[in-house]
Design a protein that fits this description.
By secondary structure, the chain is α/β, with parallel strands linked by helices. It has a single domain, classed as Trna Endonuclease, Chain: A, domain 1 (3-Layer(aba) Sandwich). The protein has four helices and six strands, in the order αβββαβααββ. The chain has a six-stranded mixed beta sheet. The longest helix has 22 residues. The radius of gyration is 14 Å and the shape is globular. It starts with 7 loop residues before the first helix and ends with a strand.
Length: about 140
């Protein structure tokens, strides 16, 4: 993993690009100042919806104490809890029949440590983890979409 940190908007942009290259149509792309599901995309061949909650490794807002600096381990755990709650809410509202729910985060050692601890829970819920490499901005999906 690289030392550079990605904010939430970097993660959203990378995931939207990844979806576009895979032929998905992005129908919603929110910024950090907007509320709701960060990314909504649709797979044309079967109409499957992909719903994404994104989190970054640093603050998006200039002037904040964490802007450009990595979040602390405690902040990452809190953000992970918020993302997991959002994923559960999306599953509750949409079901899994024609919807895939994802959590997207930077591919960093700090994020991997936290998500390794809830990997079994994500699998049971059917939540896909999208990891964005800070150096290449490439996205990997676990499990694949």
């Amino acid at each position: 993993m690289k030392d550079s940190v990605l904010n939430e908007e970097n993660v959203v942009d990378a995931v939207c690009g990844y979806f576009g290259r895979r032929g998905l149509i992005v129908t919603q792309k929110l910024r950090t100042t907007q509320r709701g599901t960060d990314i909504i995309a649709e797979r044309q061949r079967d109409g499957r919806k992909i719903l994404v909650e994104a989190k970054g490794d640093t603050s998006t807002r200039p002037g904040t104490s964490r802007h450009g600096k990595p979040f602390t381990a405690s902040q990452i755990r809190t953000h992970t809890g918020v993302a997991l709650l959002k994923a559960a809410e999306l599953l509750q509202l949409n079901g899994r029949a024609r919807t895939t729910v994802c959590i997207a985060v930077p591919d960093s050692d700090r994020q991997r440590r936290v998500f390794r601890g809830i990997d079994g829970c994500l699998r049971q819920l059917g939540v896909t983890l999208l990891l964005v490499d800070p150096a290449s901005m490439k996205v990997s999906a676990r499990p694949s979409i």
